[in-house]
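Hello,

Following up on my earlier ticket. Below are the two sequence lines again, exactly as submitted.
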Amino acid sequence: MTLFTKTAITAVLSAGIIATAAFAESHSDKALEDAVKARHAQMQMISYHMGILGGIAKGETPYDSAMVDAAAQNMAALAGMAPASMWLEGSEQGFTEGSRAKTEIWSDAAGFEAQFEKLGAGALAMVGAADAAAVGAGMGAMGAACKACHEAYRGPKN
Amino acid sequence: MTLFTKTAITAVLSAGIIATAAFAESHSDKALEDAVKARHAQMQMISYHMGILGGIAKGETPYDSAMVDAAAQNMAALAGMAPASMWLEGSEQGFTEGSRAKTEIWSDAAGFEAQFEKLGAGALAMVGAADAAAVGAGMGAMGAACKACHEAYRGPKN
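Thanks for your patience. The regenerated structure is below:
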């Protein structure tokens, strides 16, 4: 997908075409870009903790109950973060640098949030997993939530 | 502070000098570096949400109760994250690329975690702040926790 440039957007507006949701919002460009960076930090932390749990599940790193519990709790905390401060309207792919957010995030907010809820529920269910096999058994639900959310709400690479 | 290079560390070890805590741990270099990146993502998200609340407190952005509550809740979630998965022993400044973590984080873990608890308590107290002045009134406690933690547990710039 081609990234709309500000010049292109200005041209579209000058032509009198109806503005998208991006223009109905009061957030500055900087606020939108900072929101995208915060979301990427959230995703990085989710990926980091998935990596810890995945490594234990695969036997690449030794099972450690304190590490499993910490990673699962942190995953639940990350999945449970309130969307309002980070998923600002107008910060979708094509309008804000670096964003891969589809507009369905806002048009189908309930569906979007349901995937985070599934991820959080899967993470909480993993707290107390007694061995690597139990960690592995819990990975499926979490991975499915990641995959479903990315397929429905994340656009192609920029 | 000079970053110890691996060559320098090898030289020190070869000289028979007692190894530091970094070498008593089983985490790989990659695991330590990934942990530092995850902490930086956590700090970025904390800074992002502090910025939202600070902007509202200063009147730079309009008061918005949903935004205040989301930012405060997310700050509390970030401050309450379990340290075990991210503050890996051996990932202190001088041993892991990019780290500014002082060894006091591990030698005084209770003091370190107490600052995060203060930040989280300050954030939760801000949920429901009814106007920009109330947001401003709550910023002090949160800012004090940030400052105290950085002074005691964060080393100089790399």
